[in-house]
Amino acid sequence: MVPRSIRVFSLCLLAAGLASGAEKPVSGVISNGECLVCHADAALAKEVAGQKISLEIKAAGFTKSVHGQLSCQDCHPGIKELPHPEKLPPAQCASCHEDSVKAYVASIHGVRRAAGVVGAAACADCHGTHYITPIKQETSPVNKVNLPATCSRCHSNSALLQTNHMSAPDAAAHYMESLHGRALLKLGLTAAPSCSDCHGSHAIRRKDDPVASIHHNNVTKTCGKCHTSTEKAYRQSIHGQLLTKGDTRGPVCTDCHSAHEIQALQGGSFKATSDARCGVCHQDRLKRYHETYHGKALALGTTNHVPEVATCYDCHGHHMVFRVADPRSQLSSSNILQTCRQCHAGASQKFTQYIPHADPLDGKNYPALHAIFIFMTCLLIGVFTFFGLHTALWLYRSGRLYFRDRQVFKAVKDKAAQDEENYTRFSPFERLLHMMVVTSFLLLVITGMPLKFHYTAWARTFFDMCGGIQLARLLHRLGAVITFLYFALHLMDRVACAWRGRRRVLDPETGRFSWRRWGRLAFGPDSMVPGKRDWDEFVAHVKWFVGRGPRPQLDRWTYWERFDYMAVFWGVAMIGVSGLILWFPVFFTHFLPGWAINIALIIHSDEALLAAGFIFAFHFFNTHFRPEKFPMDTVIFSGRISKTEFLHERRRWYDRLVAEGRVEEYRVKDEWPRWKAIARFFGFLFFGVGVILLIVIIVSMYSHMKG
Fold first, then answer.
1. Could you give the CA distance from residue 249 to residue 197 in angstroms, rounded to a whole number?
2. Which residues does 300 contact at the CB level (< 8 Å), separation at least 6?
3. Contacts of residue 209, Cβ cutoff 8 Å, sequence gap at least 6
4. Three-state SS for 47?
């Protein structure tokens, strides 16, 4: 800083020179040249809050500014003489910009500054000081293109925002990446709005101020300055009518599009979050929407891979949203079919009877859905309770025997593993069908259960592993095709077997069809059809569980195996038919009401959960988890059972074959040991995947019920 004595001396020399060559200036008027005697010095500075601030003024820059023809005293009337006091009043803008200053004083910036808030913006913070250029000039800090950067100096300053308790700390950053920001800053489209277009320039008010341009009641008008036709459409909608009536529930532009994060409708980002934005006001509708395939798929999509499913605005409209009873509504009786056909080409009038926001818990308004929901819930609880108790008793009994006679268990398993005398239990065709059952079932569960538990993190992980919602849908349908294929192959095999054995149902004396002989075949020990013997076997088994009877000797098929077998028929019928309705809704609603889709969804979802839970818990226990079989029974892969196991587990079958003289028909001796390792590998792979799925299903159900 130039010493005060030198500045005074220089000023005296300048005054002397002026006195010798010109008339004396009017008393009190100080020329700009006199000010520049000191302020042209680059070393001139002052210290404020520990920070050095330059007081240098470059004459060339000042002359080119909008104030270049003004005297320093025009803005600094507090300077009466030179040298002036070190502390001067701030520059006065009101003498020329009275209206702007008046607006500023009433603004949030002016009010905060008057209250002594540190960092509250003043004129110079936005416009600059001595080198102010016209707003339209590209170098101006308040030029439309430069304004976002100017505003962000304060509105991106985390320390300043926190100190002054300012909202929207990320507003500037969000604007830069928004549709408006990219259009203005990256594409150079000056028609795109900048900060002042929405917030104003000098009269910036808080959003809760009724006169603010961003107040809830004024947002639509502010946006309408650019989006004229959109504002007009909005004013006619139910939302606009609520706003006109002064009802604050009426959403405005920023409620749906946000204030600073406005995204293009085509990019996917807006669609991915549109349901949540509508759900702010329509929570009940949002919950039911998330129970549909559309809602679940949208929840499992990503910003970059948003599935092509219907969201709220696809059905209800964008800005011209009306009540369904209004003839102008896209969902009115005269328009709904056309709305549905935007996605579902060829949809019939019955298709429009689908209920997108149906509540199955509401028995009054949705009696059919409620009845199906109650039935499926009772079925789920009943099956899980019954077999849960059955498994617990079996585990208790087997566990006690295992820990009491561990060596016996081990000896039997070792002997069975080393036994070279084996018998056929499953034919190659049956093993092939089981492999198809396993692969299709796991494929269906992996691609289907994430939809059931779409609100969990693992569901999205599973879908990401599957390649996204679109590929997962294709894989799920592939699993369905394999399911129908193995079911059809099995039925064809049964028909072929019946045809080959048709003479067995004929009376040998008369040669006519015998119902008695047919009944023996249909319900005999070699049949998978349940009969009275299964009830007797179940009772005997339960008695053994509780220590009230001996362990029953089993035949070729046990009661729980027959239950598993019949469950496949039930599952294919329930899951298969409902799945086909969901797969081809347009076709089925040509002869079924649209709400059949709602029923199909309940059946498909709950029956799939029942099947997955049953297989991974109870079937796995019956086959692999129980101590005498743990860690895995490979019979379904090898198709064989050792004589040790034969006598230990299925003595009744063995004795029956011996009595009939057919035991040698089942004896095998081949190359199975060479393939055993491979079969066990795939067995453990399928087994492990099933256990993992069981765990995530249980955890998800628990968290959902807890939440």
1. 25
2. 307, 450, 451, 454, 459, 460, 463, 469
3. 108, 215
4. strand
Tell me the percentage of the chain whose pLDDT exceeds 90: 41
Listed in sequence order, the residues at least 6 apart from 399 whose beta carbon sits closer than 8 Å to its beta carbon are: 627
CB atoms within 10 A of CB 101: 16
Q: How far apart are CA 256 and CA 274, in angstroms?
A: 7
Q: Which residue is listed with tokens 């585990």?
A: 395
Sheet with 422-424, edge to edge strand ranges: 640-642, 422-424, 667-668
> Nearest 5°: phi and psi at 625?
-75, -30
Report which residue type is found at 256.
Answer: C
Do the Cβ atoms of 446 and 418 come closer than 8 Å?
no
SS3 state at 53: strand
Give alpha helix (H) positions in 425-514. Answer: 428-452, 457-465, 469-500
With a CB cutoff of 8 Å and minimum separation 6, the contacts of 30 are: 71, 72, 73, 79, 81, 82
Its pTM surpasses 0.70 = yes
Backbone angles phi, psi at 481, to 5 degrees: -65, -45
Structure tokens at 31: 């020329």
Helix orientation angle between 532-545 and 559-571, rounded to the nearest 10 degrees: 120
Asked if 299 and 455 count as a contact pair (C-beta separation under 8 A), the reply is yes
Q: Are strands 667-668 and 51-54 parallel, antiparallel or unpaired?
A: unpaired
Question: What per-residue confidence (pLDDT) applies to 476?
Answer: 93
Residue 54's beta-bridge partner residues? 45
The owner of tokens 């065709």 is 429
SS3 608: helix
DSSP string, 517-546: HHHHHHHSTT--S--HHHHHHHHHHHHHHT
- Maximal C-alpha separation, the chain: 154
**Residue spans per domain, the chain:** 1-92, 94-205, 263-343, 367-428+438-481+571-706
Distance of CA 19 to the CA centre of its chain: 82
Q: What six digits make up the tokens of 330?
A: 């896209």
Q: What are the b/e assignments for 655-676, b being 16+ CB within 10 Å?
A: ebbeeeeebeebeeeeeeeeee
Q: Cα separation of 588 and 464, whole Å? A: 31
Residue 336 near residue 330, CB atoms below 8 Å: yes
Tokens of 435: 């492999």
The answer to whether the beta carbons of residues 312 and 274 sit under 8 Å apart is yes
Backbone dihedral angles phi then psi of residue 246, each to the nearest 5 degrees: 85, 10
Give alpha helix (H) positions in 29-77: 32-39, 59-64, 72-75
In this structure, are strands 422-424 and 640-642 parallel, antiparallel, or unpaired? antiparallel
Q: How far apart are CA 384 and CA 615, in angstroms?
A: 11
Three-state secondary-structure class, residue 628: coil
Tell me the two tokens of residue 530: 């349940």
Sequence-distant (6+) residues with CB within 8 A of 653 are 525, 554, 555, 556, 646
Tell me the C-alpha to C-alpha distance, in Å, between residue 618 and each of 390, 573, 582.
Answer: 9, 21, 29
The two three-digit tokens of residue 598, written as one number: 């709602």
- Sign of the CA dihedral running 650, 654, 660, 665: positive
**Token pair 């001595």 is at which residue?**
130
Report residues of the chain scoring pLDDT below 50.
1-27
**Tokens 């170098």 belong to which residue?**
139
- Is residue 289 a contact partner of residue 358, using CB atoms and an 8 Å limit? no
- What is the CA 102 to chain-centroid distance, rounded? 49
- Taking the CA atoms of the chain, what radius of gyration do you get in angstroms? 41
Q: CA triplet 642, 645, 650: central angle to 5 degrees?
A: 120
Distance in angstroms (rounded) separating the CA atoms of residues 523 and 551: 23
